[in-house]
Design brief:
The complex is a heterodimer.
Chain A (H helix, E strand, L loop, with lengths): L3 H12 L3 E7 L5 H14 L3 E5 L10 H12 L4 H14 L5 E5 L1 H7 L1 H11 L3 E4 L11 H6 L3 E2 L1 E3 L8 H5 L6 E4 L12 H12 L6 E4 L5 H8 L4 E4 L1 H10 L10 H17 L4
Parallel strand pairs in A: 1-2, 1-9, 2-3, 3-4, 4-5, 6-7, 7-8, 8-9
Chain B lengths: L1 H5 L12 E2 L2 E5 L5 H15 L2 H15 L5 E3 L1 H7 L3 E5 L10 H14 L4 E6 L3 H13 L2 E7 H6 L1 H9 L3 E5 L6 H14 L4 E3 L10 H9 L1 H14 L5 E5 L4 H7 L9 E9 L10 H4 L1 E5 L1 E6 L24 H9 L3 E6 H15 L5 H15 L6 E5 L8 H7 L5
Parallel strand pairs in B: 4-14, 5-6, 5-8, 6-7, 9-10, 9-14, 10-13
Antiparallel strand pairs in B: 1-2, 2-12, 3-4, 11-12
The chains are: A alpha/beta, B alpha/beta.
The complex binds pyridoxal-5'-phosphate (PLP).
The site of pyridoxal-5'-phosphate (PLP) has 21 residues of chain B, from α6, α12 and α16.
């Protein structure tokens, strides 16, 4: 089974550059604006799109993404409406891979089988579910693979040599290396250490390795792109959304362009690295 | 009740993957996974080491003041006119609640593991105080996460923790109560993986916490069992305990789970009433979901977003419950009831006036239901209520509810 994710990484490899993976929160600050932002991402330079599924208790996220999720929930976003975003996006873009990222409970309550069917039909390509480690693979990972979705796993600085094969089993699409032991939006990583870790993962898998957590600028993106197949940027984009809002927390005419401007800047950083 | 009939024992859980039936498990981010596997290994080793148990027992005797008395509440019994009510007096423990039983176990384990920085979440502040106390005793750095709302309503405990040298971090994310404090503690742990030990205060969280906390709290039930046999020559007929995450309750219940003659009642916080929506009764008003590393009953909306709990008692104000209770509920072994804010306030006053014991608001929830159950029982019915905390921390907020201290 080849998914849009596989196709995209293969194409970029032959182009000789890394992928830019962008994360934004569904429904932030409202459903319509988030959809406009997401639709504008590919033209701004995003190669893959991660859409956050808002959750009240995002235990691996820092303040920026926590706040984005709460803005989205306050605006009435639900997992059903998040899948609608993907459906609408797919009407105009059949190639850019879409990955839903979040926590298990909303999916569990939606119903795993129904969720996978609806997500697949809407045009979702992969899932990242932070609180479903390999130890709980029967819950979501295996059913997702069976439903034809990629299940992208996080590898972290605490994932040692012995555990890595376990993390890589049942993984598909790409491996998401979390550059720091920490939450999203935390400190900028030590790029040397990240490159070593990526090389170590690549010894165990042929899957592309994307690196995220702590990427804020074009320079960060270039530094990561040297060793990795993809660069993930999230908190910085979510912060761009926040800063564009008016005093009541509502979207303004600048919201979409604030995000796309930053994406273009970071995309230039990624593309400057030839491989 | 079919499950109950097919089970040989209610005391063998969890299985090796941390499940109690369909509940429990290890739903955590990858960063934490190696840490909880490490913890499980260290705990399994400690559990098999007589030296660990000896050290813990010595601290129980000389530092905590165990065993706690099993006290016959004569005037309460007379007042009710039914069952003979005994109180398991864990409120007499050093630091004023059962929380220290668990904390000492975990801190001794942290020392064995070479961890130097202890983090904890707290609601009422009792677990925070117990953790700060043990950290002071062993010279460990202590950081306590506490919802900003709780920092406000449990001021005496905030001051105690500071006196003990702990750093208090008010949590302003989400609903600013216990669940958010737990989120923040987990975020800290993800960010400080080398030197940090997360000392969870209740029988919840990812495996092995629910099992480990239960084991450390089971001292309550083990003592109560021996004490009752000594006093009355037989087992009690019923047990009653309040439930926040469920640690004092499972501690009392666990040694009795395989004694079918013992009726067991857990009491959740019904806040303004389960029907009102403003409560903390996950079993009576919630449904199964996944939060804080385990599958259990939770309060949530139709979209799986976690709801804010409400209880007059900060220690019960949590939208979930330990996974073992979820399982005991589904199997029917334990009956879960609930008590409203105003019923708890009445019980708080009743016990104070009749027995000269000011209970914490948490066990006041248990007292309220115990009194009701006892009234319907014969005089030879033996009941044990877990008096798991004292009310010193609550007197100011109770005074506010009752209209002043004049
Ligand atoms: C005195 C007391 N009782 C009960 C609780 C509730 O916790 P658990 O259900 O884990 O016993 C608390 C929590 O803070 C407490 O302080």
């Amino acid at each position: 089974m080849t998914t849009r994710i596989d196709t995209r990484f293969a194409a970029l490899k032959s182009e000789g550059r890394a992928a830019l993976v962008t994360f934004v929160m569904a429904g932030d600050p409202d459903h319509a604006t988030a959809l406009d932002v997401i639709k504008a991402l590919p033209a701004a330079g995003a190669d893959l799109i991660e859409i956050g599924m808002p959750f009240t208790d995002p235990m691996a996220d820092g303040p920026a993404i926590q706040a984005a999720g709460l803005r989205a929930l306050a605006g009435g976003e639900t997992l059903h409406s998040t899948i609608d975003i993907v459906r609408s996006f797919r009407k105009g873009d059949s190639e850019t891979p879409i990955i839903l990222m979040g926590y298990f409970n909303p999916i569990y309550i939606y119903g795993v089988e129904v969720f996978l069917k609806d997500a697949k039909e809407a045009g979702v390509d992969g899932l990242i579910v932070v609180d479903c480690p390999p130890e709980e693979d029967d819950e979501l990972c295996k059913p997702a693979l069976k439903a034809g979705l990629n299940f992208i796993r996080l590898a972290t600085p605490t994932t040692d040599e012995k555990r890595l094969p376990k993390v890589l089993s049942n993984t598909s699409g790409f491996v998401y290396y979390v550059s720091i032991a920490g939450i999203t939006g935390a400190a900028t990583p030590d790029f040397g250490k990240v490159a070593t870790a990526v090389a170590r993962i690549k010894m165990h898998t042929d899957l592309p390795v994307a690196v995220g957590f702590g990427v804020k600028t074009a320079a960060d993106a270039s530094a990561i792109a040297k060793g990795a197949d993809g660069v993930v940027v999230g908190s910085a984009l979510v912060e761009a959304v926040r800063k564009s809002l008016d005093a009541d927390g509502k979207a303004t005419a600048q919201t979409v362009s604030a995000v796309t401007a930053l994406v273009s800047e970071i995309a230039a950083g990624v593309r400057a690295v030839k491989k | 009740m079919t499950i109950q009939q097919t089970l040989n024992s209610f005391r063998t859980g969890p299985d090796e993957t941390g499940h109690f039936g369909n509940f429990g498990g290890r739903f955590v981010a990858e960063t934490l996974m190696p840490l909880i596997l490490d913890l499980e290994k260290a705990y399994t080793e400690a559990k098999a080491d007589p030296a660990f148990h000896a050290e813990l027992a010595s601290f129980h005797t000389h530092y905590v003041g165990r065993p706690s008395p099993l006290y016959f509440a004569e005037r309460l019994t007379e007042h009710v006119g039914g069952a003979k009510i005994y109180l398991k007096r864990d409120e007499l423990n050093h630091t004023g609640a059962h929380k220290i039983n668990n904390v000492l176990g975990q801190i001794l384990l942290a020392r064995r593991m070479g961890k130097t920085r202890i983090i904890a979440e707290t609601g009422a502040g009792q677990h925070g105080v117990a953790t700060a106390t043990a950290c002071a005793r062993f010279g460990l750095k202590c950081i306590v996460y506490m919802g900003a709302v709780d920092v406000e309503r449990q001021k005496p405990n905030v001051f105690r923790m500071r006196m003990l040298g702990a750093e208090i971090v008010p949590v302003v994310s989400g609903s600013k109560t216990l669940k958010d404090a737990m989120n923040e503690a987990l975020r800290d742990w993800v960010s400080n993986v080398e030197d940090t030990f997360y000392c969870i205060g209740t029988s919840a969280g990812p495996h092995p916490y629910p099992m480990m906390v239960r084991d450390f709290q089971s001292i309550i039930g083990k003592e109560a069992r021996e004490q009752m046999l000594e006093r009355e020559g037989r087992l009690p007929d019923s047990l009653v305990a309040c439930i926040g995450g469920g640690s004092n309750a499972i501690g009392l219940f666990h040694p009795f789970l395989d004694d079918p003659s013992v009726a067991i009642y857990g009491v959740e916080a019904a806040g303004h009433g389960v029907a009102s929506g403003a409560h903390a009764a996950s079993l009576n008003g919630g449904r199964p979901g996944v939060l804080h590393g385990n599958r259990t009953y939770l309060l949530m909306d139709a979209d799986g977003q976690i709801a804010e709990a409400h209880s007059i008692s900060a220690g019960l104000d949590y939208p979930g419950i330990g996974p073992e209770h979820a399982w005991l509920h589904d199997t029917g072994r334990v009956t879960y009831l609930s008590t409203t804010d105003s019923e708890a306030l009445e019980a708080f006053q009743l016990l104070s006036k009749l027995e000269g014991i000011i209970p914490a608001l948490e066990p006041a929830h248990a007292i309220a239901r115990a009194v009701e159950i006892a009234a319907s029982k014969p005089k030879d019915h033996l009941m044990i209520v877990n008096l798991c905390g004292r009310g010193d921390k609550d007197i100011f907020s109770v005074a506010e509810h009752l209209g002043g201290m004049e």
